[in-house]
């Protein structure tokens, strides 16, 4: 018997996260491992009167990076461009056979590939900002992800579905409640001009003057739970040390420290994976901050090596190198958007215009 939570998750995505409408074109993307959820999403889109299509992904990433020439690394296929330019909604599901497939790939190849995708990301963000493209990125529990998170599959299934709130009687009502709570936080932060983050080996200041704070509450991502903005591009000054590994292309970059001056990274180090860190920083504008966010989902209590969950963890913050989101007012454009996580539960403090509003992983407002 199929897990009823799969159907419930599909209903939540189609009817709330993406708000699928009749006669709209919807593409559903995922690996072959995620077919049970893809099937339920397809069914729910049909019930909503939409025109859904399934595009299955097969994990050929290692083969690509092993054999691709430079001109192939720089090429974005017309099919990918067509999807992002023409679909009314895109639902993407993660769940791969081997999250570590790219562990031994030359970091410079990943840098070239990511830089090439800027054109695709420009189209995507423009359509998102204009609200002509709805999208959602969501999980399906598979063995490899459970193993990465150091859980049994049944334990990981509970973790995934509970974090998406499908264990609740009315998940949509629960996410709407979170929206109301987070909008109060955003209302407070929108009055601030400057943010200062203090913590272990960390003292970083940046301007948010004129920028918008976003409440992330189950639309766009499942699970969700964060408040986020785009720092003013030339304003970051100071140092931050990230206490969780940065995960990029399946690689773990451990104990990352970054020092900023007038918005740009001027010093970067990592105990493990420093070569990849420095290659990514070479991508145009990847050496500036595109996002600053505070996790609010206190139901996510452990690091899983999947940022879809980890960046939402209550008691943490994350900063993104590279691309800003138009909706925040951010201007930084890049082929990279790399979220990196820091624990704030022991001694972490955040100030808005020199007033303490967050301490030891909790809001004081």
Descriptive report:
With 365 residues, the chain is of the alpha+beta class. The chain has 2 domains: 4-163, Thermophilic metalloprotease-like (3-Layer(aba) Sandwich); 171-363, no CATH class. It has helices at 4-17, 35-47, 61-67, 70-73, 78-86, 107-116, 118-129, 143-148, 153-163, 171-189, 274-281, 307-310; strands at 25-31, 51-57, 89-94, 134-139, 194-199, 202-207, 214-216, 226-229, 237-241, 246-248, 251-253, 257-261, 264-269, 289-295, 316-322, 337-343, 349-352, 355-359, 362-363. The protein is globular, with a radius of gyration of 20 Å. The relative contact order is 0.12.
Low-confidence parts: none
On the 0 to 100 scale, the average pLDDT is 96
What is the gyration radius calculated from CA atoms?
A: 20 Å
E-strand count: 19
Distance between the termini: 46 Å
Q: Classify the secondary structure makeup into a structural class.
A: alpha+beta
Q: Output the number of helix runs.
A: 12
Helix residue percentage? 25-40%
Strand content: 25-35%
Whole-number total of structural domains: 2
Shape: globular
**Sheet of most strands:** 8 strands, antiparallel
Major sheet strand order:
13-12-9-6-5-17-18-19
């Amino acid at each position: 018997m199929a897990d009823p939570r799969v159907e419930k998750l599909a209903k939540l995505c189609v009817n709330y996260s993406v708000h699928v409408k009749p006669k709209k074109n919807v593409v559903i993307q995922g690996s072959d491992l995620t077919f049970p959820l893809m099937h339920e999403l397809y069914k729910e889109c049909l019930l909503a009167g939409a025109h859904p299509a399934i595009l299955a992904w097969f994990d050929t990433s290692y083969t690509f990076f092993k054999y691709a020439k430079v001109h192939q690394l720089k090429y974005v296929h017309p099919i990918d461009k067509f999807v992002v330019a023409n679909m009314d909604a895109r639902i993407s599901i993660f769940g791969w056979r081997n999250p570590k497939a790219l562990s031994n790939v030359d970091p410079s190849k990943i840098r070239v590939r990511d830089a090439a995708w800027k054109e695709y990301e420009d189209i995507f963000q423009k359509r998102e900002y204009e609200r002509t493209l709805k999208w959602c990125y969501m999980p399906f529990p598979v063995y490899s992800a459970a193993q990465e998170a150091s859980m049994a599959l049944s334990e990981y299934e509970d973790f995934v579905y509970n974090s998406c709130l499908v264990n609740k009687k009315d998940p949509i009502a629960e996410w709407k409640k979170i929206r109301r709570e987070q909008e109060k936080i955003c209302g407070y932060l929108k009055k601030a001009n400057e943010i200062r983050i203090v913590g272990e080996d960390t003292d970083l200041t940046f301007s948010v003057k004129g920028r918008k704070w976003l409440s992330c509450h189950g639309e766009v991502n499942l699970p969700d739970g964060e408040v986020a903005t785009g720092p003013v591009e030339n304003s970051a000054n100071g140092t931050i040390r990230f206490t969780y590994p940065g995960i990029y292309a399946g690689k773990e970059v451990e104990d990352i420290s970054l020092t900023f001056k007038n918005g740009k990274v001027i010093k970067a180090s990592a105990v493990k994976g420093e070569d990849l860190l420095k290659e990514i920083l070479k991508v145009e504008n990847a050496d500036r901050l595109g996002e600053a966010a505070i996790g609010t989902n206190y139901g996510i209590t452990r690091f899983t090596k999947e940022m879809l969950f980890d960046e939402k963890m209550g008691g943490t913050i994350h900063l993104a190198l590279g691309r800003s989101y138009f909706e925040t007012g951010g201007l930084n454009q890049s082929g990279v958007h790399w979220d990196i996580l820091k624990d704030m539960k022991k001694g972490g403090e955040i100030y808005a215009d020199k007033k303490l509003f967050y301490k030891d992983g909790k809001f004081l407002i």
